[in-house]
Structure formats: structure tokens, C-alpha cells
Write a structure and sequence with these properties.
about 350 residues; alpha/beta; about 20% strand; globular; binds nicotinamide-adenine-dinucleotide; binds zinc ion
Length: about 350
């Protein structure tokens, strides 16, 4: 049975976005675009894998052929953006045209950056097809690409007019990609909703079966949490930092392994455990809550190993991270499942102990 779609508003800066979430909702995309006054010239950006699996659902939506970019994080670069500009110019795009990004976070970030910059900004619509993109990257207006010297170094804020979240796309998503997104859902539970956290913990099997009865409310809760935070703080002045729970150590793990070993969410899973451990050692997080987080992460499956990674290299990577100020580290700590606090005085020796406890090499 299909339930009525859920509508969430995000107001950030001068531009508001609307998120529509519903099982099967992508079939009504053309109608939603009209309803939200997305101009008649609609350029779809996707990749061959996603298009082969789901392109038939977009019949009649786009203007001409879709712009298909090579699949993969290594193609999230200015060359891909340039290919989008070429296609837009050749297709006669103007200020009233729109880009419809159909894919995971890589397509969303790349197409989003093209939309942010072409003619100083044209309308952007996200149709996210990975769990990570549905609950995270399509919401909040961050767009951008990688530089050979670093990830996400080039970017712009550009709020999408519309985000259309259809969990039906997830049926074809490989299990590892699905899990990668789930850790971000766990993060939302850990920072803002014990109910969401407990739903995942109690129904892990249904989650993996992609049972809409469990998955849909979990996606809705996650989108609401991110939308709320972004509405209150578009540019990471303060509140938006709570979304970085688990990301200090997570980013360090990703960068030390050159983004090859972990899917983003897997690194964040370790990062959340590290943040929980720092909090527990400081006495601000109960042992039972730390254990609940560890148990849920464990229930979601095995993570890539970390026992060959030297603690010193992770600490170096953390130090290089923008969150270090005067040798002291900004850190989002969980104080219970569903609440966090931000501190700015986590020391290296504290972090060293915690990383050793997680099993990193001395
Ligand atoms: N803008 C933001 O706020 C923000 C936030 C978090 C992450 N990100 C970015 O998002 C990117 C990661 O996104 P991702 O995890 O979605 O990775 P991704 O876009 O690379 O997608 C993962 C893989 O799944 C495939 N895929 C997508 N949808 C599918 C479907 N329905 N069925 C089968 N396969 C499908 C993709 O083609 C790709 O091979 C990173 O570049 C990261 O920097 C951005
Ligand atoms: Zn993340």
C-alpha cells in the first residue's frame, strides 16, 4: 500500500527547498516539477549505471538525451563539470533552465556545482538514488568537486529547488552502498533521535530487506533532522557542526587510506565509536549508551579492518583537518543516544588512547 508522500521544507539563505519523500514518488516527477515551477528546459545529469537501471522511469522528463557522466568518485572533478557546461550550451540552456541530478552523491555534488555556477546559478533538482544521497548529500545545498590535491576543495552553496526522495531506487543498490548510507542514518539517531536509533536497532532485518514500513520512516526522520539543522544554520556557524559527529576520525581514516578502503559511512562508523569513547572517558556518556551504539554498528555488518593503520598517521590527518585550533580539537560528542555536545578541548593524548582502544596500530 502506498502512503501519502511527506513534504519537508528547508529554508536557507534566500532560497527555500522542498523535499518530497514517498515510495514510488519518482513516477510523478514531471508533475512535481511543474508544481514547483521548474522551467520547461530540464537537463538530466546521471551516470550510465543508474540510467541503465532506472532511466525508463524518467521518460519524457528531460530535454533531449540525458548528460551521462562516468561513474565514480574519481570522476567528481572539474572536467565532469565542464562536460555538463558543454551539453547545456549546446542544448541552448538559459537562465530559466534546470538541472535534474539523478544519482548518488557524486552525481548530486557534480551536477549541483554545475547548476550553482552556470550563468551564475540555475535551478537544481535532486533525485537521489543512493541512501547516502537521500538522507544526506542532496539536502543542505553543498555542492562541489574534488581537486587532484584534495577532496571537495572546489565548491559552492546552492540550494536545490526540489529534492525527490523515492526509496524504490534503493532496491537495486549494492548492499555495501546501502550500509554506507545506513551509518549516516545511525548518526542522525545518535545525534538527534533515540526513537530513530531504537527503530533501527529493533528492526535491522527489515531494514536490510528494504522493507518500506521501517525504511521509509527512517529516511523521513533523517531528512527532517538534516533539514532542521540546515534551516537553523546553513553555513556551519554552529549547529550544523553536530552533523559532523563521527566525521573527525572518519575523515582521517578515509584520507590515510586514500579513500580506497572505506565507503564513507564505514569510516564514519569508526569515527562515531571514537567520539563515543572520548565522551565515555570524560564521563559525559553512559556506558550503556556507548554499548548500544557499538551493538547497532556491529549488527549492520563487518567493517574493513583498521588494525594495520598506525595511530600516529591518523593523528597527523586529524591535525591537518580544519577542525584543529591551537592544538585543541573541536569534537562533537554524544552525551546520550539522541543528544550531543560540542567541545573544543579534546587533546591528542585523549584521542590516542581512544584510537588504541579501537584497535589501531601503535
Ligand atoms: N553535498 C553534501 O552535503 C555531501 C554530503 C555527504 C557526502 N557527499 C558526497 O557524496 C559522495 C558519495 O555519495 P554516494 O555514497 O551516493 O556515492 P556514489 O554517488 O558514488 O554512488 C555509489 C555507487 O552506487 C551507484 N548507484 C547509485 N544509485 C544506485 C542505485 N539506485 N542502484 C544501484 N547502484 C546505484 C553509483 O553509480 C555508484 O557506483 C561523495 O563524493 C561525498 O563527498 C556530499
Ligand atoms: Zn558523512
Amino acid at each position: 500500500m502506498l502512503s501519502a508522500p511527506t513534504r519537508i521544507e528547508v529554508s536557507a539563505g534566500a532560497h527555500d527547498s522542498t523535499i518530497w519523500i514517498g515510495d514510488g514518488i519518482a513516477s510523478g516527477l514531471a508533475g512535481l516539477l511543474d508544481e514547483h515551477r521548474v522551467g520547461p528546459r530540464r537537463f538530466i545529469v546521471s551516470n550510465p549505471k543508474v540510467w541503465k537501471l532506472h532511466g525508463s522511469r524518467f521518460a519524457g522528463v528531460g530535454d533531449g538525451d540525458p548528460i551521462l557522466l562516468s561513474d565514480g568518485e574519481r570522476f567528481k572533478n572539474l572536467q565532469a563539470v565542464s562536460r555538463i557546461y558543454d551539453a547545456l550550451i549546446r542544448g541552448g540552456a538559459d537562465r530559466g533552465s534546470a538541472i535534474i541530478a539523478v544519482g548518488g552523491g557524486v552525481i548530486g555534488d557534480t551536477a549541483g556545482f554545475a547548476a550553482a555556477t552556470f550563468l551564475r546559478g540555475i535551478t537544481l533538482v535532486h533525485v537521489p538514488t543512493t541512501l547516502l544521497a537521500q538522507v544526506d548529500s542532496s539536502i543542505g545545498g553543498k555542492t562541489g568537486v574534488n581537486h587532484t590535491l584534495g577532496k571537495n576543495l572546489i565548491g559552492a552553496f546552492h540550494q536545490p529547488r526540489l529534492v525527490v526522495v523515492d526509496p524504490g531506487f534503493l532496491n537495486t543498490l549494492p548492499r555495501r552502498e546501502f550500509r554506507s548510507g545506513l551509518y549516516e542514518v545511525v548518526k542522525y539517531g545518535a545525534i538527534a533521535s533515540r526513537e530513530l536509533f531504537e527503530r533501527l536497532a529493533a528492526h535491522t532485518k527489515q531494514v536490510f530487506a528494504r522493507d518500506a514500513g521501517i525504511l521509509l520512516p527512517s529516511i523521513i526522520d533523517s531528512c527532517r533532522i538534516k533539514a532542521d539543522v540546515v534551516t537553523k544554520d546553513e553555513r556551519e556557524g554552529g549547529l550544523r557542526r553536530i552533523l559532523n559527529f563521527g566525521h573527525t576520525v572518519g575523515h582521517a581514516l578515509e584520507s590515510v587510506t586514500r579513500y580506497r578502503r572505506f565507503r564513507h559511512g564505514e569510516a564514519i562508523a569508526y569515527g562515531m565509536l571514537a567520539a563515543a569513547d572520548v565522551a565515555m572517558r570524560r564521563g559525559v556518556l553512559a556506558h550503556a549508551d556507548r554499548e548500544a551504539l557499538a551493538a547497532l554498528i556491529k549488527a549492520l555488518g563487518a567493517l574493513p579492518p583498521i588494525n594495520d593503520l598506525p595511530t600516529g598517521e591518523i593523528l597527523d590527518a586529524v591535525r591537518r583537518d580544519k577542525k584543529v585550533v591551537n592544538g585543541r580539537l573541536h569534537f562533537v560528542l554524544a552525551t546520550a543516544i539522541g543528544t550531543t555536545t560540542t567541545v573544543d578541548d579534546v587533546t591528542e593524548s585523549e584521542l590516542r588512547d581512544v584510537l588504541a582502544g579501537l584497535g589501531l596500530k601503535d
